[in-house]
Each structure stands twice: as structure tokens, then as C-alpha cells.
């Protein structure tokens, strides 16, 4: 089996374990919806009952004698109401069945995947996968029956149906993926089809030799233990917990009771469906990609540029170095708030400086333009028609705010890259350049053929980390936009932060975080493979 | 490597560097300007760095006055002083004594029927109890009242003198509380972070054991979690363990969030040191830990310093995590204190800027002092020859 598949297997396994666990827990599937539906129905029934009673009581007033005649009718109404309610309860009970079946089904799928991973045998995997498909079909029939039999409240079933379709799509994709994982082996026949027994023995042998190997490295494990334990406790456990929350509908209302020990109410994949079906998500994702790549590009280019300038005999070199590090040294949230002040439309430094530049003789041609064109150029004009300054709406226009955020973040990020590039440059031996000089290389050729290749191993890990940090940077955009322009300038992380801590949609935010993590994970797997950072590990 | 350049090129380089240095410095100068302005005048069209009417009022306010309420808690003396103003001391003594004497009659307070049935001395005693009931709240200060009045007066006078002294004001203002909290948290974060990262990085660098590569990738992957992903579950874990509103909880959070990067960093440093050194030490009879602690660790000093700096910055400047963990007023760290001045409806601009400057100074001094170490090898686990 191809190695890359195994890495994705881990992710899928993790996701499935939690989905399965969440569904098998003895909660109502769609718990919230059912609660609400009950309440709504009771309310409606009560209203109906009250209305009919009023109607009849007005009749009573008109015809007092008819009271006795109306009584049986009222009793009938009440009985009807009771039977409807009982019937609805049956519906609710039956809704729980597909839930359990689905949980079992996920676990079987898991087993199939495990079989695929451990035995690497085509026939066994095929059997496992076919059994999965059959369960899927069985499950489908059950669901179909229940819908036909009890199809009462169309709205709820349609919601149930949508998430169900998505479950199926995901599972079909999984099935295809599993087949794809085995097929190359089967077609090539380069790898022998192993008999499972032998395979298990090999597996055991492998384990044993690994155990011996591990035993001889006790000291290394002891050294590693404190860091590992603390990271698992404080990072990994919450990370896994986040997956659990992402299948629930935890919100402000439920959060307080949850903290007091109430259980989580799971709503399956609903949060994930909401995320992927929102146009907002895709727009925000695009914006995040623009944000990340613009920033990282300028960080790297700027960092290398200033490192090249500093890497020579210079007067005041250490002074420059000290001053250029400042944006990295000050707390980020202070820096961003200061930039926010500088972006103020009337009092901000940037607009004032631009206004002063415009008033210089070079820009005199602006006086000949019409006020409308000037307005389009964000130049403010007084009533007499003379130019007074520049009024770029840095903080109230989405495009300008986003531009401003990028400028701020570039300013913040250059020093880090500069320092790393400087460290890399200083480790390049001078003899390389001397040899190039003898061969008559130009300055650009030296940079192109010596500096950049030599910098690459130092810069690549820094660029990967820088990309992840920029992607995950909440401070800049959150503090610049605060409560305004929500959804118009947000990148993924700020959007989640607002969803979780301003709107208290915890379940939704947890699912969103998981999606962001998946994006970053896929990105870094490719980057690590491409850049061969792993070789540094070995 | 040193390149020799022509003077013209050098001038251009100097100009570019000066311009960029100015751009790097300007926002800080801006904060200085605002902090020097009298009142909360954040918005002004003037671009001058030092305003005409510059004052240090904001710094004085932040350091000595903000949150200062004449000492931490009410001491016995201050309570006594209040009592003294309120009542004549002799009458007070008498009242409290009488109250204590007839305290047992409080039984009848809730039972009015029985109280009406009382006769003779019993009834009189109950009446006196009722008269002196109002002194019940002074009961626990009776010891103070009994003490020598002169001593008490002297103590009160001392407290008054103390309250007028600058250092006393400084120690009791909220800035010092925030500063102290930040210092405690940062110190322990650095201590834990560096010691854990030094050992783990050493294991990754020197030994080849099963799970090594996965371990390294695992530490790298933890850097990829979006901060929001950990914040809420972390809060839940912390509240289950009763670690919210404690220094230890916050230290634990900062240590772990900064740790993975530190481990990679340290591993990169160890890789630059030849293994032969330890081999020699082991042959000479060192234990593996001694070889690490006495031979290798002193050699990676720059690495330790940079790692320490990273942990320090992570804990010194963080707002988001601290905001979740520390909710009590007396446990707030500097960024939280700063943010409290940056309210939604009213921003104390001058105070905010002044304290920003005070927060920045330690971080900037550290950075500038350590910038030579920074260059000598931010390796992030990269291959460095």
C-alpha cells in the first residue's frame, strides 16, 4: 500500500472514532430539534385548544343551554390531541433507531479500514468493504421505511435527510478511497499477496524487535517524558475534546448547564454541513489564502532583502540590527492598536502624511481635476475647491481595512525572517564567493547560484512555520476590525474566534476549528514532503 | 562573510536602512507622544513627537495612583479609626461589654411570645440587651479597644505617614500587582519551558529510538492547531482540574503552548555540536545525564538563551489565554490590565499608552540585549552546517 495513504488513514480514523463515539452515546440524535419540536407542538395544540374553547364559549354565551351539548365535542378534541401526541412520541422513539444503527455502521467501517491497514490484503479488504456497503443498504431501507411510515413533519425529515445524504457521500468517498489504497498492489502484483497468518507473525516480530530497540533507549525516553506528558495533557486532550464538541450543539444556553455536569447534545454532522454549505466559508477561505500568501511573500522577500543589506561591514550595524528587531519585540496587541490609531481617517498619521505629500508642487496637476475624480481618489476638497488632504477610509471600508491589516502584519513579520536569513547568510562560507569572483560571476549570479541555494535549508522550516503562524494570526484583523465589518474582512481564525467568544456558538466554532486544522494539516504534509524537512529529523 | 563595497553603494544602503529603521521605530514614538499628552487627547492632527505641553502625569498616575486605595486590605487600625470617628470610645466600650453580658437573651429575638411572658429582672435584662444590640458589629474589635490607646494612635499615625510615601503607593497600586503577576508567570514559564525543551531536544538530537521521527512530527503538528481550537476545551480541562484563577494553571498553559517550538529549536542547536564530546565524557566515566548536564548544556548557551526569550515573550505579551484563565482582579497580568484601560466606551488613552511603554521596555531591553544570540542561530531544526 502506498505510504501517503497511511498518513491520511490516521486523520480519517481519528475523525471516525469520534463520530462513532458521539453517535453511540445514549443521547437523542437531533436532541435539540426534538426538544424544540415537542415544545412547539405543545404550544400549537394548546393554542388550538384555547381558540376552539373560546369559540365555543362565545357560543355558550349566545346559547347557554347548548353547554351540555358541547361537552362531548370538547372531550373528543382532547382525546384527539392526546392520540396525536402519542403518535408523535412514537415517531421520536423510532428516530433513535437509525442513530444507533449509524453508530454501529461507522464502527464497522472503522474495522474495515483497520483491516485494510493491518493486513494489506485485497480479498479481506474487499469482504470488509462489501459488508460495509451491505450495511449501508440495509440502513437505507430502514430509513426509507421509517420515512414512509411516519413521514409527518416534513421540515424535520428534510433536515435529517440532508445530513443523511452527506453521510452517504462521505462514506462512498471513503469506500472508493479504501479501494484505491489496495488496488495498486493488486494490479501491480509486485508485492506478494500475503497470507494473513504470516503477516500477523511478521507484525509480531516487528513489534518484538521494536520493543528491544526501545528498551535500549531508556535514557532518551526518560529525557523526553516531561515534555511529552505535559504536551499530551494540555494540548492533545483538549484537541480530542474539541472533536467531541464539534459534533454537538453546545451554545451559550447549553454551556452553563454543561459546565454544571450536563451531557452534550449531539447533532451529528450538522455543524460541518452548515460550514461547507455557507458561501461565507468559501469566501473567507479565499481571503485567508490571499492574506497568508501576500504576507508570507513580503515577509520572506523583505527579510532576505534587509538581511542582505545588513550582512556586510557597516558602521552602526548593531544599532540597525537592534532597531529593525523592534516590531518583533513589542507585544503584538499594542502594536496593532497603535497602527489602528495611525489609520484614523482624519487624525491618523498615514492620511496626514499623504495629505502633506499631495500638497507639494509635484502634485499640482491635481488642482485641475474635477471634484468628482478627486473624491474617487479619496482626496478631500473644501467648498472653495482647494485640496485639503487625503481621507482614505482605512477603518470603515472592507478593502482598505484588509489592505491596512496586511501592511501592519508585514511590518510585524519582517524582523523574524530577517533574523533567520541573517543567521543563514552568516553560515555561508566566504570561499564560495571568492571562487565565484575568480570565475567572474556578477552580483546577481552570486545571489542566484550561491546565496539562495545555501539559504534554502535554513529558510524552509521558517517559511512553513511562518505560513502557519500567519494563517492562525488572530490579533491583527480582530483588533483592527473589532465588532465592525464582521464577515467582510475576517479570515478563518478571526471568524471562528468571533463565532465562539462573541456569538457563543461553541459547537459550530469547534467544528470550524477542526476544518481549519485539517486545511493546515494537509498543507503542511505537502510542504514537509516537498521540502524534505523530515530529513533533518533523521 | 563581509563584502567590501564602494562608498556610493554604502550611502544608498545606509539611507535605505535609516528609512526602514525610522518606519520600525515610528509607531513606538507615536505611543510615547500620546503618553506625554495631558488628558486623554488621543486624536490630534499634529505630527510632532514631543507635544508642546508634555507632562509625565500619565506615568505618575499609572505607577502610583491607579487602583491605589490606601493599602491592600483594611487593617484593624483603620477599622478602629472609623469606629473612633463614629462613636465615643468610652461609650463604645460600655456598649460592647453590655452587649456581651446579655448576649444570651438573643434567644428571645425570634420568639416574641416568650419575650412577652418574661417578668422581673429577666425582663429588664432583655430590655438592656435590646438597647445594646446595635453594638454587636463591634464585638470582634473589643480587643483593639481594650488595648492601650496611645499605641493605637501611634500606629495610625505610622500608617498615615506610610500612605504618603511613594514606594508604599507604588507597591499598592494596580500596576505593581499586574507587574508582579506577569513576572511570576513569565519566570516559571521560562524555567519550565527551558528545562523541558533542553532535555527533550537532547533526546531527539542524540538518540535514535523507535517513534523518534513521529515524535518530532507530532511536536511540529501541535503548532498547527488554530488557537481557538484549544482555548475552549483547555478552559474546560482547567476548570475541571480547579486550575482556573491560579498561577500554576496559566504557567502550565504557556509552557505547553511554547514548548513544541522550543523543542525543535533546542534540537537544532544540539545538532551543531559533535557527538565525540559526549563519547569522550562517557569513556571518562560520566553517566549519560552528567554528560548532558556538564558537557553539552554549557555549550548550547545561545540556544538556551533564545529558547528562554521565546518562552518569555509568549507569556509576557499574551492576552487571549490569560483572559480566559485569570478572571480575578488581583491575578490579572499586564496585558489584561492594559486591556482594562482600553474599554469599549471609554479609552484612557494617556494611561494606556504610558503603561504600554512600561510593558514594552522589559521585552525590548531583553530583545536588544540578546539580538546577537538571535542571529547566531535561529535554526528551527533546520540543517545548519
How does this model look, in words?
- The complex is a heterodimer of chains A (538) and B (385).
- Chain A has 538 residues and is mainly alpha-helical.
- Chain A has helices at 3-24, 31-62, 67-119, 122-150, 154-188, 196-215, 218-246, 252-259, 270-277, 279-310, 317-324, 326-329, 332-342, 349-358, 371-376, 398-426, 430-438, 443-471, 475-481, 492-501, 506-531, 534-537; strands at 379-381, 387-390.
- Chain A contains 22 helices and two strands.
- In chain A, strands 1-2 form a two-stranded antiparallel ribbon.
- Chain A is flat.
- Chain B has helices spanning 7-36, 57-65, 76-86, 89-101, 112-117, 120-132, 142-146, 149-164, 166-172, 174-206, 212-221, 227-240, 247-271, 276-283, 288-299, 301-317, 320-325, 334-341, 349-375.
- Classes of the chains: A mainly alpha (538), B mainly alpha (385).
- Chains A and B meet through helix 6, helix 7, helix 10, helix 11 and helix 12 of A and helix 1, helix 10, helix 11, helix 12 and helix 13 of B.
Annotate the secondary structure layout.
The complex is a heterodimer of chains A (538) and B (385).
Chain A: H1 3-24, H2 31-62, H3 67-119, H4 122-150, H5 154-188, H6 196-215, H7 218-246, H8 252-259, H9 270-277, H10 279-310, H11 317-324, H12 326-329, H13 332-342, H14 349-358, H15 371-376, E1 379-381, E2 387-390, H16 398-426, H17 430-438, H18 443-471, H19 475-481, H20 492-501, H21 506-531, H22 534-537
Chain B: H1 7-36, H2 57-65, H3 76-86, H4 89-101, H5 112-117, H6 120-132, H7 142-146, H8 149-164, H9 166-172, H10 174-206, H11 212-221, H12 227-240, H13 247-271, H14 276-283, H15 288-299, H16 301-317, H17 320-325, H18 334-341, H19 349-375
Amino acid at each position: 500500500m502506498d505510504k501517503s495513504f497511511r498518513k491520511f488513514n490516521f486523520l480519517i480514523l481519528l475523525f471516525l472514532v469520534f463520530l462513532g463515539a458521539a453517535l453511540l452515546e445514549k443521547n437523542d440524535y437531533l436532541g435539540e430539534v426534538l426538544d424544540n419540536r415537542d415544545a412547539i407542538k405543545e404550544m400549537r395544540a394548546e393554542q388550538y385548544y384555547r381558540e376552539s374553547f373560546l369559540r365555543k364559549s362565545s357560543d355558550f354565551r349566545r346559547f347557554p343551554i347548548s353547554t351540555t351539548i358541547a361537552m362531548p365535542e370538547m372531550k373528543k378534541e382532547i382525546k384527539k390531541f392526546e392520540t396525536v401526541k402519542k403518535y408523535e412520541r412514537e415517531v421520536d422513539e423510532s428516530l433513535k433507531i437509525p442513530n444507533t444503527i449509524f453508530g454501529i455502521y461507522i464502527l464497522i467501517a472503522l474495522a474495515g479500514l483497520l483491516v485494510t491497514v493491518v493486513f494489506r490484503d485485497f480479498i479481506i479488504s474487499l469482504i470488509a468493504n462489501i459488508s460495509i456497503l451491505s450495511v449501508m443498504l440495509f440502513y437505507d431501507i430502514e430509513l426509507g421505511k421509517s420515512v414512509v411510515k411516519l413521514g409527518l413533519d416534513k421540515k424535520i425529515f428534510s433536515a435529517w435527510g440532508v445530513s443523511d445524504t452527506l453521510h452517504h457521500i462521505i462514506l462512498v468517498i471513503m469506500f472508493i478511497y479504501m479501494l484505491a489504497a489496495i488496488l495498486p498492489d493488486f494490479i501491480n502484483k509486485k508485492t506478494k499477496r500475503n497470507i494473513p497468518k504470516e503477516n500477523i507473525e511478521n507484525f509480531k516480530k516487528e513489534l518484538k524487535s521494536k520493543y528491544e530497540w526501545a528498551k535500549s533507549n531508556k535514557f532518551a525516553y526518560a529525557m523526553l517524558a516531561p515534555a511529552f506528558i505535559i504536551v499530551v495533557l494540555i494540548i492533545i486532550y483538549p484537541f480530542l475534546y474539541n472533536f467531541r464538541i464539534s459534533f454537538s450543539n453546545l451554545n451559550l444556553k447549553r454551556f452553563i448547564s454543561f459546565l454544571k455536569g450536563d451531557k452534550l447534545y449531539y447533532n451529528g454532522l450538522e455543524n460541518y454541513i452548515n460550514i461547507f454549505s455557507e458561501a461565507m466559508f468559501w469566501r473567507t477561505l479565499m481571503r485567508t489564502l490571499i492574506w497568508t500568501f501576500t504576507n508570507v511573500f513580503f515577509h520572506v522577500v523583505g527579510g532576505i532583502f534587509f538581511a542582505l543589506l545588513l550582512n556586510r561591514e557597516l558602521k552602526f550595524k548593531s544599532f540597525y540590527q537592534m532597531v529593525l528587531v523592534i516590531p518583533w519585540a513589542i507585544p503584538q496587541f499594542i502594536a496593532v492598536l497603535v497602527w489602528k490609531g495611525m489609520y484614523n481617517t482624519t487624525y491618523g498619521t498615514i492620511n496626514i502624511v499623504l495629505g502633506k505629500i499631495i500638497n507639494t508642487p509635484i502634485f499640482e496637476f491635481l488642482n485641475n481635476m474635477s471634484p468628482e475624480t478627486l473624491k474617487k481618489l479619496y482626496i478631500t476638497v473644501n467648498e472653495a475647491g482647494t485640496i485639503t488632504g487625503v481621507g482614505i477610509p482605512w477603518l470603515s471600508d472592507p478593502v482598505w481595512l484588509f489592505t491596512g491589516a496586511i501592511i501592519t502584519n508585514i511590518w510585524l513579520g519582517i524582523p523574524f525572517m530577517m533574523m533567520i536569513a541573517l543567521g543563514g547568510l552568516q553560515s555561508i562560507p566566504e570561499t564560495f564567493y571568492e571562487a565565484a569572483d575568480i570565475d567572474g560571476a556578477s552580483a546577481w549570479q552570486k545571489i542566484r547560484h550561491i546565496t539562495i541555494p545555501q539559504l534554502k535549508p535554513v529558510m524552509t522550516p521558517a517559511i512553513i512555520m511562518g505560513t502557519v503562524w500567519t494563517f492562525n494570526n488572530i490579533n491583527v484583523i480582530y483588533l483592527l476590525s473589532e465588532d465592525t465589518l464582521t464577515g467582510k474582512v475576517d479570515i478563518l481564525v478571526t471568524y471562528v474566534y468571533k463565532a465562539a467568544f462573541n456569538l457563543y456558538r461553541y459547537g459550530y466554532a469547534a467544528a470550524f476549528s477542526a476544518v481549519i486544522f485539517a486545511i493546515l494539516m494537509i498543507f503542511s504534509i505537502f510542504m514537509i514532503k516537498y521540502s524534505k524537512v523530515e530529513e533533518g529529523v533523521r | 562573510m563581509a563584502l567590501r563595497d564602494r562608498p556610493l553603494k554604502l550611502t544608498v544602503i545606509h539611507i535605505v536602512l535609516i528609512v526602514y529603521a525610522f518606519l520600525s521605530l515610528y509607531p513606538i514614538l507615536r505611543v510615547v507622544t500620546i503618553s506625554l499628552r495631558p488628558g486623554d487627547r488621543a486624536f490630534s492632527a499634529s505630527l510632532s513627537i514631543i507635544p508642546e505641553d508634555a507632562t509625565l502625569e500619565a506615568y505618575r498616575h499609572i505607577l502610583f495612583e491607579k487602583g491605589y486605595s490606601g493599602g491592600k486590605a483594611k487593617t484593624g487600625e483603620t477599622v478602629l479609626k472609623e469606629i473612633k470617628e463614629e462613636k465615643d470610645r468610652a461609650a463604645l466600650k460600655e456598649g460592647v461589654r453590655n452587649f456581651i453580658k446579655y448576649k444570651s437573651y438573643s434567644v428571645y429575638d425570634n420568639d416574641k411570645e416568650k419575650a412577652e411572658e418574661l417578668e422581673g429582672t429577666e425582663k429588664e435584662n432583655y430590655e438592656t440587651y435590646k438597647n445594646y444590640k446595635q453594638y454587636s458589629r463591634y464585638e470582634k474589635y473589643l480587643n483593639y479597644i481594650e488595648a492601650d490607646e496611645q499605641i493605637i494612635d501611634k500606629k495610625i499615625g505610622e500608617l498615615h505617614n506610610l500612605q504618603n510615601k511613594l514606594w508604599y503607593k507604588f507597591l499598592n497600586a494596580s500596576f505593581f500587582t499586574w507587574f508582579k503577576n506577569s513576572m511570576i508567570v513569565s519566570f516559571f514559564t521560562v524555567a519550565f519551558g527551558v528545562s523541558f525543551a533542553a532535555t527533550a531536544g537532547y533526546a531527539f538530537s542524540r538518540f535514535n529510538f523507535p517513534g523518534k521521527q513521529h515524535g518530532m512530527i507530532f511536536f511540529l503538528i501541535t503548532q498547527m492547531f488554530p488557537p481557538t481550537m484549544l482555548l475552549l476545551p483547555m478552559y474546560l480541562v482547567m476548570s475541571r482540574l480547579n486550575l482556573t484563577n491560579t498561577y500554576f494553571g496559566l504557567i502550565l498553559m504557556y509552557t505547553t503552548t511554547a514548548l513544541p517550538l522550543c523543542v525543535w529549536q533546542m534540537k537544532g542547536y544540539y545538532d551543531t555540536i559533535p557527538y565525540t564530546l559526549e563519547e569522550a565524557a562517557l569513556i571518562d566515566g560520566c553517566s549519560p545525564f552528567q554528560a548532558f548536564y556538564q558537557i553539552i548544556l554549557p555549550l548550547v548557551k545561545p540556544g538556551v538563551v533564545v529558547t528562554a526569550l521565546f518562552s518569555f515573550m509568549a507569556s509576557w505579551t499574551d492576552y487571549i489565554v490569560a483572559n480566559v484563565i485569570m478572571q480575578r482582579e488581583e491575578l490579572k497580568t499586564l496585558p489584561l490590565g492594559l486591556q482594562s484601560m482600553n474599554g469599549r466606551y471609554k479609552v484612557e488613552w494617556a494611561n494606556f499608552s504610558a503603561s504600554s511603554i512600561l510593558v514594552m521596555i522589559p521585552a525590548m531591553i531583553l530583545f536588544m540585549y540578546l539580538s546577537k544570540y538571535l542571529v547566531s542561530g535561529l535554526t528551527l531544526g533546520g540543517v545548519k552546517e
